[in-house]
Design brief:
AGP_Transferase, 3-stranded antiparallel beta sheet, alpha+beta, Aminoglycoside_PTrfase, 5-stranded antiparallel beta sheet, about 375 residues, Aminoglycoside phosphotransferase domain-containing protein, Kinase-like_dom_sf, 12 helices
């Protein structure tokens, strides 16, 4: 896909000052645009003379309305049903009819700094307390079982209801126009919501097959479409076994940049950026993504993650608690193969239109075909 940062809006201090005025908020003492790694927002710190500072996140036009409304609904659920600390929402708009001309979310500033900035200064004991805290976050998120796969939204009575799936890896409108002219966000992505793991997996496969039919860059995959059709039929036949999972809310981007840490009190003060949070099968949840990534791009993160998980398991064992990592395990080899096939096809469809990973995509194709043939012999 394209780089999300390329679609970030241009906003000035004057725009924010006008927003404060039209939102019945006092004038700011100081407004500072923050240099962060955020890809979907321009972020500004708003400092006031006689009230707490605010953080303003100004969204690009990547996923109009849905992303903002999903985050608001998720935050509301978290505040009502968990003790996970999140930032209080001051004012928001999921449309563009405002002084910024953009969607935005303004929240109270959480105390501290992002964990990636302070992590090198923490000793092993302090790090272990952070791990324990984050394991508790995972436990709270997995303690509630849902009946859909997708996001959350409010209905007309402000009750929470299932919403569409959101994913950072979805095809965005600007990429669709370039690589799949005439298509839409809905025609290229599995939107949902969905009732089961198999239904969601099949929907993903069908969208990727649609892309194969539409793009000449994916013509090398067309001979395998009949095999994919047979694979989908096999999944539906084995639906009961493959649906053996728990559907739980997942943050899906729990790296250290989204965790605020107070170095004075040595505690986590909040978890940020719930915009792409959705209810998912546990096997696709937080431990399979960026959980506790320190954002150091040195090629050694996998080894650090293994060490971190060993520490988490050791802490749980010493306390007589359940190993949280086992919660995210596949319940059968067939279920794991289903997910592997979906992921391989997704990767092929992602990179081919952009002319990327030419050698790897052929290796992925061979791996995929081997799985498909094993299911359809």
């Amino acid at each position: 896909m394209g780089t999300p940062r390329e679609a970030l809006p241009t906003v000035t201090v004057g725009h924010i000052e006008e927003l404060l005025e039209t939102s019945n908020l006092p004038p700011a003492e100081k407004i500072t645009f923050l240099n962060t790694k955020a890809e979907y927002h321009v972020i500004a710190l708003i400092e006031f003379e006689e009230r707490e500072d605010h953080i303003l996140r100004i969204a690009g036009n990547h996923v109009p309305k849905l992303k903002t409304e999903n985050e608001l609904a998720v935050l509301a659920w978290l505040q009502k049903n968990t003790t996970i600390p999140v930032a209080q929402v001051i004012v928001y708009q999921s449309g563009t009819d405002n002084a910024l001309g953009c969607e935005y979310l303004m929240q109270k500033r959480l105390k501290g700094q992002s964990l990636d900035l302070v992590w090198p200064t923490l000793n092993e004991g302090q790090r272990l307390k952070v791990y324990d805290f984050m394991v508790d976050v995972l436990r709270q998120l997995t303690s509630r079982e849902w009946e859909h796969i997708g996001g959350l939204q409010f209905d007309e009575e402000d009750d929470l209801i299932p919403g569409p799936v959101l994913d950072e890896r979805f095809w965005e409108a600007r990429d669709i126009e370039k690589f799949f002219p005439g298509e839409t966000v809905e025609s290229m992505n599995p939107v949902g919501p969905y009732k089961s793991y198999v239904e969601f997996s099949v929907a993903r496969l069908e969208k990727y097959m649609h892309a194969i039919r539409k793009s000449d860059s994916l013509a090398f995959m067309r001979e395998h479409l009949p095999l994919l059709e047979k694979f989908i039929a096999a999944l539906k036949e084995d639906e009961k076994k493959l649906n053996d999972t728990k559907l739980c809310l997942a943050h899906r981007d729990l790296h250290m940049g989204n965790i605020m840490y107070d170095v004075e009190e040595h505690k986590i003060t909040g978890i940020l950026d719930w915009e792409f949070s959705v209810v998912m099968p546990l096997q696709q949840g937080d431990l399979s993504r960026a959980f506790m990534h320190d954002l150091v791009d040195d090629g050694k993160w996998y080894e650090r993650k293994k060490k971190m998980l060993r520490m988490i398991r050791g802490s749980a064992k010493a306390k007589g608690e359940k190993d949280i990592s086992k919660t995210y395990a596949f319940t059968s080899e067939d279920q794991e193969e289903m997910q592997e096939a979906v992921d391989l096809l997704r990767a092929i469809v992602e990179v081919s239109p952009r002319g990327q990973r030419e050698r790897e995509k052929m290796e992925w194709r061979d791996e995929l075909v081997k799985i498909l043939e094993g299911w359809t012999e």
